[in-house]
Amino acid sequence: MDPHGDLNPDTDDLPLRANTNHVLVRHYVLDMTVHFDSRVISSSVVLFLEPGSGVRTKAGAGDDIGHGTGDGAGTTDAGGSQERFAYGFQQVDAIEDDTKGLEKVHGVEERDKAEFQVVADTDNIQSSHLWLTTNDSDFTLVLDCCDLDVSKVEELDITSVSAMLGLQPSERSEVYSLNPQAALIQSLISMPSSQWRQKHQLFSLCSRAPGAQDGSSLHFHRDKWSLQVRKKGVTSPQDFPHAVRICYETRPTGGSVRWTKDQDNRVCVYTAGSPINNRALFPCQEPPVAMSTWQATVRAPSECVVLMSGEEQAVPTEDGDTHFFIWNYYVTMAMPASTFTLAVGHWHQVTAEIPPALENGVRDRTDCMVDDGISCSHADYPCRFTEWSAWSQRVIPHRVFSPVCLLQKAQIGVLKLLPRCLAAAHAVLGVHPFPRLDVLIVPAGFSSLGMASPHIIFLSQSVLCAGNPGSGDKGLSLCGSRICHEIAHSWFGLVIGARDWTEEWISEGFATCLEDIIWAQAQKLSLQETTEQFDLKALLRWRRLSDELQNSREELQVLRPNMEKTGQISDSGSSTVKHALNPEKTFMQVHYLKGYFLLRFLASQVGEQQFIDFFRLFVKKYHGQLILSQLTSDQLVMLLELLLEESELSVASLCALQRTYSLQNQDAEVRHRWCELVVKHAYAQAYGDVEHFLVHDQAMGVYLYGELMVQEDAEQQAVARRCLSLVQEEMDQSARRVVEEMVL
User: Fold this and answer.
1) For this UniProt entry, which residues form the secretion signal (predicted)?
2) Strands 456-459 and 437-441
């Protein structure tokens, strides 16, 4: 069986294999131990699953992993499936750790060794002993995975966790009687965000439950890009286990994490933001639509610091068995798995002091919530946009970490600028989406100037100033603008993300544009100084963009390489990210710069302050959601009507317009305006679209005949006469008389 069906990506396209339309991971519980000596992370991850709305019931998992027909439009949030178990919630104020008798998670128990024996193990292929006993009629959970050595996959016995009994319905339904494990997990997943602490505690207890003892087991197969899991005889996602534990180890050369040495020559490891994201750190669902929450326990040597993209600053405790320190992080906002970030090393913290000018304004009571009629439209999570205290918090709690040798430069630059940049971002965009921020100066081999994740920013040492403590703000421009760029990603790229990864410009274009606005605010520049700085930045970026356009392949320059197929996925939910593995694209800035210039143009049309006001309203409306840049039909109609007012349009522009928006395949309102544009500018290549419209959309094409005739163009008049001859016998008599008067 080919588990990937007809999805056959080019060599530089990244496959997203997860069948997210069949089943979604709603929560991950990770238990990781960092081994610096062998440069691996031994780990288990427990997946809490929910069947999706795109239900597959009988066919094999690979039967539809090809380019299907997703709707590809609109927004997506972290909401659940259309059906939920209607169980009431009992308040769980205090849950004792009822893990007595639970098996140790890591490793394979002696009794399981034969069953989970790996029968094929190469760099890219690995299977459990009984995988071949399954068949295509069994439902397959497909996860994105590579460079991982999997030792065991098992279903958990959730009914053994006594604390979960509080989620049982008062009257047991038929659904509960048939599958109590699934019913309990659905109740857990559906607990409201107001009970998130109890919810996470239950997730933690369930993650340590023993394997199910029903006499059956889970079988797995790993290839280059995916991990596939089956339970023999189970043919639907509804009947598939809803809690699955995977035990595995990363590889020293795995693409998701980088083992290296910091500037103090001490070993460290961090998630590098590679094109393959986190699939070489833990098996997961990589498509952005697979938004989930997570909690993680990380064991690391006691002299190390563990930083993650979690919501609260972790306070480590000692592991009595290994003398490692244990760090715990979590998130309550569902986000794509690609936002999970980890860094472990021998870094030092420098306490950030808030400048006196900001001291009294950390919480500014003059900037409070405004009732503008816009309310949250995302799935349920503890949202800062609904908290008055968050709206008044100009500077969120923040920390900075650095190798010892760079502490002074970090103090001069990052520590000095960070609170100013945070306050400026708040002034421009409003409430900070995340409650805290860590900044880490990463090793010299980091391949970009910065990378933003929830609650943490990686900064390159290249942005640090080369000056000294007495040099003032000189030399801080690169550091300040980069900090502002990464902070802007909290709004555009993180709390609002692209539904299709090929639309990087939604994140990078907006962050580049906002970088200038926030940095000018942080510098407290005058209007004239701001304008001069904006103009200089625009000139430098135009030179860079012009150079890239002249020296790169055209297919890498397109902001939306999937064109009208942007956002489309297969029936199972799998897809590919075009050119994601192309090394040339990694270092290009076209998506930054084209997006930036588009936004600057719009700002010039409506005014700078009005455009900033738009940013704030956009964030308030779409936070917690995924978006696409496709135009709706009404927006396309408006665009074409505005273009009809232009006296001239080049053939190249018309060709690009037709290709980009696939206008011949839009609804009749759009096609009508497109035909008018074709006629006005005598775009002969699209006369076929006009003929098709006149023949098949007779109710809307009457006056198009007149436009063809009034141009006094022989070819256009011939089109009108030919179409009339084809349809005049079936035309409405009134319409026929009107058309004949125009044409004949």
Assistant:
1) none
2) parallel
In eight-state DSSP terms, residue 354 is P
Contact 257, 250 (CB under 8 A): yes
Q: Which of 316, 261, 198, 707 is nearest to 443 (CA)?
A: 261
Residue where the block lists tokens 């308030």:
620
**Is residue 167 situated within a structural domain?**
yes
Give the Å distances, CA to CA, from 651 to 594, 678, 691: 22, 10, 19
What is the predicted pLDDT for the residue at 537?
96
Q: What angle do CA 220, 223, 228 make, to 5 degrees?
A: 30
Nearest residue to 145 via CA among 24, 246, 232: 246
User: How many whole angstroms separate alpha carbon 169 and alpha carbon 183?
Assistant: 9
The CATH number given to whatever domain includes residue 425 is 1.10.390.10
Number of Cβ within a 10 Å radius of residue 68: 18
Instruction: Dig out the tokens for 588 from the structure.
Output: 């290009």
What is the 3-state secondary structure of 442-463?
Answer: CCCCCCCCEEEECCEEEECHHH
Residues 189 and 210 in one domain: yes
Distance of CA 465 to the CA centre of its chain: 32
Which regions of the chain are under pLDDT 70? 1-10, 53-123, 170-177, 215-216, 351-373, 466-474, 564
Non-local CB neighbours of 207 within 8 Å, separated by 6+ positions: 29, 31, 44, 46, 105, 156, 245
Active site residue 486: yes
DSSP 35-72: ETTTTEEEEEEEEEEEE-SS---SS-TTTT-S------
HSE-CB of 332 using CA atoms within 13 angstroms: 21
The answer to whether residues 432 and 476 belong to one domain is: yes
CA distance 262 to 248: 27
Residue 222, classified by CB atoms within 10 Å of its CB into exposed (0-12), middle (13-18) or buried (19+), is buried
Express each pLDDT in 445-467 by its tens digit.
Answer: 998 999 999 999 999 999 997 65
Residue 514's contacts (CB-CB under 8 Å, 6 or more residues apart) are 428, 429, 484, 485, 488, 491, 492, 615
Q: Assign residue 273 a region: left if phi > 0, alpha if psi is -120 to 50, beta otherwise?
A: left
Q: Which residues contact 17 (CB under 8 A, 6 or more apart)?
A: 3, 4, 65, 142, 143, 144, 225, 226, 574
Which of 50, 155, 286, 486 is an active site residue? 486
Residues 612 and 640 in one domain: no
Treating both helix axes as pointing N-terminal to C-terminal, what angle do 733-743 and 714-727 enclose, rounded to 10 degrees?
150
Q: Is residue 146 within 8 Å of 255, Cβ to Cβ?
A: yes
Residue 214, Cα to own-chain centre: how many angstroms? 37
Q: Which domain holds residue 218?
A: 23-52+116-289+293-306
Q: Identify the residue whose tokens are 């427990």.
A: 46
Question: Does a structural domain hold residue 423?
Answer: yes
Together in a domain, 184 and 207:
yes
Shared-domain flag, residues 568 and 695: no
Which of 77, 26, 22 lies closest to 190 in space, CA to CA?
A: 26
- Pairwise CA distance, residues 654 & 685, whole Å: 10
Q: In what order do the strands lie in the sheet with 126-128?
A: 118-121, 126-128, 218-222, 226-231, 140-144
Both tokens of residue 416? 């000095």
- 65: which 2 tokens? 């992993």
Strand ranges, E, within 562-678: 575-577, 625-627
> What are the strands, taking DSSP E only, across 129-183?
140-144, 148-155
Q: What's the pLDDT tens digit per position in 208-242? A: 999 988 766 799 999 999 999 999 999 999 999 99
Pair of tokens at residue 551: 């020296």
Instruction: Answer yes or no: do 534 and 576 share one domain.
Output: yes
Bridge partners, residue 330, by sequence: 295
| Strands ordered across the beta sheet of 450-453 | 348-350, 398-402, 437-441, 456-459, 450-453
Give the integer Cα–Cα distance in Å for 255 and 272. Answer: 8
pTM exceeds cut of 0.85: no
